[in-house]
Amino acid sequence: MKVKEKELFRIGEIAKRAGVTARTIRYYEELGLIDTPTRKGASHRLYTLKDLNALKRIKQLKNYGLTLSEIKEISDLAATDPTGQKGKAKLIASYIKKRQEALEKKNKLEEYIKELEWHIEQLRNVKNFNACPGTECAECEFVNICEFADINPGN
């Protein structure tokens, strides 16, 4: 599905090609993320290939976790800086921030997975589930790391 450079799209068609809804496009126009299109006569909004590219870029940036206000800031920088360096620098900074957030989430998930693995192993090894914590704590190989072991008054 090749697109001609001067091709114009109605809102439904560009929405479909960009993978968004017409309502989303109107909202992006309100926010200033895309230009309000020209109208043919008094009827249909007509969008350009530039608009399609902008919609796809917005969708891509949202998928990477950027907020619409962050995307607007980058878009505004790009519009005022013909070299594109300011927008590029802001996007790089945003990606670095998102990468750091993702690494932090990854570390928390890894800790959670280790915790679950410990609980699975502990539960597989306990002889009497109803006695844990309790009489088995003295013999349990996990007594030093179990958060319940100190509850048992018999230990």
Describe this structure in words.
The structure is a single chain. The protein is mostly helical. Helices cover 56% and strands 3% of the residues. It has helices spanning 11-18, 22-31, 49-63, 68-80, 85-125, and strands at residues 38-39, 45-46. A two-stranded antiparallel sheet has the order 1-2. A hairpin with a 5-residue loop joins strand 1 (38-39) and strand 2. The termini are far apart. The mean pLDDT is 85.
Topology:
Elements: H1 11-18, H2 22-31, E1 38-39, E2 45-46, H3 49-63, H4 68-80, H5 85-125
Antiparallel strand pairs: 1-2
Helix pairs in contact: 1-3, 4-5
Provide tags for this entry:
single chain, 155 residues, mainly alpha, two-stranded antiparallel ribbon, 5 helices, 2 strands
